[in-house]
Amino acid sequence: MRSTSDLLVGDEHVVVRGLWRAVDVFRCLALCYAAWSVWLRNAEVAHLPGAILVLAVVAAWTVAQTVRPLRTVRAYAAELAIGCGAVLATRLVDHDWVITAGAKTIPSIWPTAAIVGFAILRGWRGGLAAAAVVAASSFVEVVHPTANTVSNSIFGLLLGGCIGYCVDLARSSHAAHAEAMRLAAARAERDRLARTVHDGVLQTLAFIHRRGTDLGGEAATLGAMAGEQERILRALVSEPDLAEVERAIGGETDLRSSLRHVASESVQLVTPADPIRLTHRVADELVSAVEAALDNVHRHAGDGARAWVLLDDDGAAVTVTVRDSGRGVPTGRLEEAAAEGRLGVASSIRGRLADLGGTAQVTAGPGGGTTVELRLPAKRRS
Amino acid sequence: MTSADARDGRPGSGAQAVRVVRVAVADDHPMWRDAVARDLDEAGFEVVATAADGPSAVARTIATRPDVLVLDLHLPGLTGPDVCAALTAAAVPTRVLILSASGHDADVLAAVKAGALGYLVKSAGRGEFLDAVRDTAAGRPVFTAGLAGLVLGEFRRVRARDAGPEVPELTQRETEILRYVATGMGYKEIAAALFISHRTVQNHVQNVLGKLHLHNRAELVRYALERGIDPVATPSPYAAGRPDANGPGGIRPRRSR
Prior knowledge:
The structure holds 2 protein chains of 2 kinds.
Chain A: H1 14-40, H2 48-67, H3 73-93, H4 96-100, H5 112-142, H6 147-215, H7 218-238, H8 242-250, E1 252-254, H9 255-258, E2 267-270, E3 277-279, H10 280-300, E4 307-313, E5 317-324, H11 333-339, H12 345-356, E6 359-364, E7 370-377
Chain B: H1 2-8, H2 13-18, E1 22-26, H3 30-42, E2 46-51, H4 54-64, E3 68-72, H5 80-89, E4 95-100, H6 106-113, E5 118-121, H7 126-137, H8 145-160, H9 172-182, H10 187-194, H11 198-226
Organism (chain B): Intrasporangium oryzae NRRL B-24470
Keywords (chain B): DNA-binding, Phosphoprotein, Transcription, Transcription regulation
Protein name (chain B): Response regulator receiver protein
């Protein structure tokens, strides 16, 4: 449910603002029509001062809403109450036979303004509900419904429902448009910041890192801190939020951005310049396998070990190679571990790749350390 | 300094020690420019020119013809790839080493395709940087893992697009070596793993770079022909001598930026 604070006039769609103005004009015209109708049949009104009093109340509200329009649920509930009260009051000021003959009620079409108001405030549900209230009071008023009562009620329901529906559409398209504008503005601002950070802050941090390392001692510690911040900041400003948009639209994701988070001081992510597109399911599984491999590096390769994650798409298969500079795995130890039922690298990496229809190979790397090669045939990309 | 000294003993660097290597430095950050120039000076290089923007980097490099141009990737006026293309078009023998703050940039690939011989991130240590300048001066490509990944991707892309017979592909061995470089292995480690010499690994990497430049040239020619431009008749504004010998230097492929 929308709260009334959402419905501030300033935020509203131009269609909705136009409808509010139309309601204000309609209310005045409806008052004139009601007064004219009573004037035409003043001879058959049983209690003319009563009818004039009802009209006066309706007129007072009309003037108040024209001079200082209140577009809140409370104001329109009051208007609906006045409208229905005026309809019911018709029974007090008119003869029975006049009403049964199908004469107009005192406010005539005036309560329609309240129906439209509710439709604007609360969409098609609000419009229908207000129309139902007006219809119910006119049925109560006539006691024996005439053809007019039925058709007027149907018109009221149609009006409230249709206008409410149009307002709902206008609002949702307005909201979507505003969201798109907001995203575009946010992206432009982010690009501007990224440029500034790249040209200024990153250069300075990299410089401090370098000079600090040269100077040694405490300066080297400070330099290392600057270097760490430089790396974090660079990752932050180069993060393509476009990938998130693609994720929402395409059902596919770019493996490069899915794996971006694994890059750190000791892990380098090496990628081609072009995206490697995979469906989310496949990409998520591959990412989990890479995470498991890197987790293994952190636990077993020893302190100071570095790792590289290479993404390579040669058309026939997508290959992810995780190599570390650490101590390495003695041949057969992985099989041994799996045979003993200890779930580790072997099961989580090989299992994931087997589920995807790919293969995983864990070998002692050519330069020492371990190389994990995850291979996913092209036809298994989705 | 220790790492630089340690690496001086390897084959190939002895020949360069005789002659002083002449270097030009182009960076729009005065701080960086000065620091790099000072480091080079202290290490025995001769800094013959500095420049703060792209056009002056091109003009001063053409004027002084240094052995190495240390080039910041994002210069005002002309970008790194633009500078490389202009120097190639002007037939300057200077070798270009790209220095960039960002490790992963499509512009790095563009610059290397346009003729740069090496690439290093600014966060690299001083010893690593001086080694890179020495390697570049000796004509040895300076490949980081990140650049190897980009180059590998570039060959994959060209092959996937079925570029035709004029574009050379990587041999299996070259692909293997490029993948090793892309997973952080040094030339020595690769040589040991493949039972080949250090020099052979270097040659393979150099061949990869040569093929990449051929790609670029083939792309430029196709780009020109598609648009009805005669590549030879459109020399670069920077072309001092023989633009036809270096391909269509004045026309560069469009890059989305």
